[in-house]
Design brief:
The complex is a heterodimer of chains A (60) and B (248).
Chain A lengths: L5 H54 L1
Chain B lengths: L5 H22 L13 H28 L2 H33 L8 H14 L1 H7 L3 H28 L18 H42 L24
Classes of the chains: A mainly alpha (60), B mainly alpha (248).
């Protein structure tokens, strides 16, 4: 069997590499959005803990 | 802890993947038999090897969980299976594309390599539903670990049986008889192996960081007394870290 010419094999190779990068990109995007949300929540919670600590110190 | 050093690791991974891509497309010579189509091999084969290694690694982590009862090992095993499943889906897609170009078919049911890989994937596809079906977190973690150990042991057995199979159409990549790679192809293949390993490790650490942060948030909420007792506990397939605050 003769090797496929570039113009025939090219779309297959491009398709495979695009599929790989797309899957990794989608995964990273989902994880990054989750991490951003978590970071925001963590900041809010930390602020609330600090407020509570300040309140306790004022009471004391 | 898991987020430490993640940024430089991500940068190194991105650089090595980019280097692999350039080397595979421009530096590695075209295959005499398959021509340019063979370039798919540099992403497909390392991903397949890493998928199977990831499943075995998850099994080893599950053994650690069963031995120590430390929920962090369960989390590590869970994330390893998750990343390996993602890699496995990529293997199936890139493999099908390659098969279409090389054989004229998207899938060949007669080939033991293809079918056994699909079987392994289908086996691991039941991991999440299994976890979700068990409500008690302790029991869920234990059953999931037993599954990960059993399935992890099945992976190398399956691999060896397939290598011994006489009738196959799928090419053998690292065989001593007729599959060894010449010069630059071999260099690019090992480069691809390194970069895909780095990618697996980076994604694993990325997800571990996210899970760890989520566990810390739950712990903080608990300390603040924000947990609503009236609300039913949401069932989840994801493990719950009971040592979220302790260093890993």
């Amino acid at each position: 069997m003769a090797p496929l010419p570039l113009h025939t094999a090219g779309p297959y190779v491009a398709g495979a590499y695009i599929a790989f990068f797309l899957i990794v990109l989608i995964y990273v995007a989902i994880m990054a959005s989750k991490l951003t949300r978590s970071e925001r929540t963590l900041t809010e919670l930390t602020e609330r803990v600090e407020q509570r600590q300040r309140g306790e110190e004022d009471d004391g | 802890m898991y987020g430490k050093g993640l940024r430089p690791l991500s940068l190194i991974t991105a650089a090595s993947v980019a280097l692999t891509l350039v080397a595979a497309l421009y530096w590695a010579p075209n295959d005499a038999y398959l021509g340019f189509l063979q370039k798919i091999f540099y992403v497909h084969v390392p991903l397949a090897i890493l998928t199977l290694c990831g499943f075995v690694a998850a099994g080893l982590m599950a053994i650690m969980h069963l031995r120590t009862r430390d929920s962090r090992w369960d989390m590590r095993s869970y994330v390893a299976i998750h990343i390996s499943l993602i890699f496995g889906v990529t293997v199936l897609i890139t493999g099908s594309i390659w098969a279409r170009g090389a054989w004229g078919h998207w899938w060949v049911w007669q080939d033991p390599t293809l079918v056994s890989f699909l079987l392994v994937m289908l086996l691991y596809a039941t991991y999440q539903p299994l976890r979700f079906a068990i409500e008690d977190p302790e029991l869920q973690a234990r059953y999931a670990s037993v599954f990960a150990v059993t399935a992890g042991a099945f992976v190398p057995i399956c691999f060896i049986v397939v290598r011994l199979a006489p009738g196959y159409v799928h090419p053998r990549t690292l065989s001593n008889i007729n599959g060894n790679l010449p010069g630059r192809m071999q260099v690019v293949f090992y480069l691809a192996m390194i970069s895909m390993t780095l990618l697996w490790v980076t994604l694993w650490r990325f997800e571990m960081t996210a899970k760890h942060v989520a566990a810390q948030i739950r712990r903080l909420r608990g300390l603040l007394g924000e947990e609503d007792d009236a609300q039913p506990v949401r069932r989840s397939a994801a493990p719950s870290l009971t040592h979220a605050g302790s260093p890993s």
